[in-house]
Amino acid sequence: MIEYATSIKYMLAGYAVILTVLALYILSLFNRWRNLKRDLQTLKEIQKKD
Amino acid sequence: MKPQPIVLKVLNVASVLLFLAALGMVFLYAPLEATMNYVQKIFYFHVANAWVGMLGFIAAAVAGVVYLIKHDQKWDIVELAAVEISLVFFIIAIVTGSIWARPSWGAYWTWEPRLTTAAILEMVYIAYLLLRQGLDDPDRRARFSAVYTLIGAISVPITFMSIRLFRTIHPVVIGTNSTASQGNFDMTSKMLATMFFALFTFSVIFVNLFWHRIRLGQLAQQVEQLKLEELQ
User: Fold this and answer.
1) Greater confidence, B162 or B230?
2) How do residues B11-57 score in pLDDT, each as one tens digit?
3) Which of A4, A14, B28, B98 would suit a FRET pair with B183, their CA atoms being 20 to 30 Å apart?
């Protein structure tokens, strides 16, 4: 049988990995979306000037 | 770019609520396993992540086939979205499995069939992303990617079946268990219910993120087209 303290430590590490990786990926999607929107806006402004 | 459709907004809320409910089931509903106790709770999300990871790699291969038939760039966007999201879910499955292995097997990593095939699967698709970046022509890149995902998908059933075909220490939770398995456990009905709920939850989260990633790909394509128009 695995000791309770050891078991809890690894369980918390596992869930920390799940939450961190998912949060980072969602953040990366959000950042890429924001940057592309900014690029699109700039390109449309350039087209209007032309 | 069109604003988020209502269905996608509903899916956003459903994903968050289901994720919280799945966490609740894991920690409040599923009983503590007798030998491994708390660390076994990694199992529910570990399996769910591996499931959606493999599902996405298969979805990418299907999108690849459709691209090869229709030669429509939108299927290349779908394929890339599926691969990217699956890589994220599958790396979570590998890392959480490794963390669970340390107290169960006494080592974070061992080159047994399941872990080895899973590592190869992840690397096959990391290589896909790297190789795509080396191709500038969109049609050539899409054609190459479609063929690559088709060949890459062969590693999905190999990874899935590895614990059933070879002698391994990785537990087979559903189906026949290998006598060599270490970390095996019998699931109660509450454990089974929690596992299936986690599988459902991560399938919904997968669809949600997949949709968002496709929209991102479409926006990137729109920006790319405008840039090309500017250059001409």
Assistant:
1) B162
2) 999 999 999 999 999 999 999 988 888 999 999 999 999 999 999 99
3) B28
Domain count, chain A: 1
Q: Is residue B199 part of a domain?
A: yes
Q: What is the interface pTM, i.e. ipTM, of the complex?
A: 0.92
Q: Report yes or no: B88 at the A interface, CB cutoff 8 Å.
A: yes
B99 lies in some domain: yes
Residue in B with minimal Cα distance to A49: B230
Interface test with A, best of B42, B85, B86, B104 (most A CBs within 10 A): B42
3-state secondary structure of B37: strand
For B104, nearest residue in chain A (alpha carbons): A2
Residue of A nearest to B227 (CA): A43
Q: How far is A17 from chain B (nearest CA, A)?
A: 7
A48: containing domain: 1-50
- Nearest-angstrom CA–CA distance, B155 and B120: 8
- In which band, very low, low, confident or very high, does the pLDDT at A28 lie, cut at 50, 70 and 90? very high
CA dist A42 → A49, B223, B226, B227 (Å) = 11, 10, 10, 10
Check pLDDT > 80 for residue B176: no
pLDDT at A20: 98
Write the CA distances from B47 to B74, B108, B143, integer angstroms. Answer: 31, 17, 32
> Residue B37 is nearest to which of A2, A36, A44, comparing CB atoms?
A2
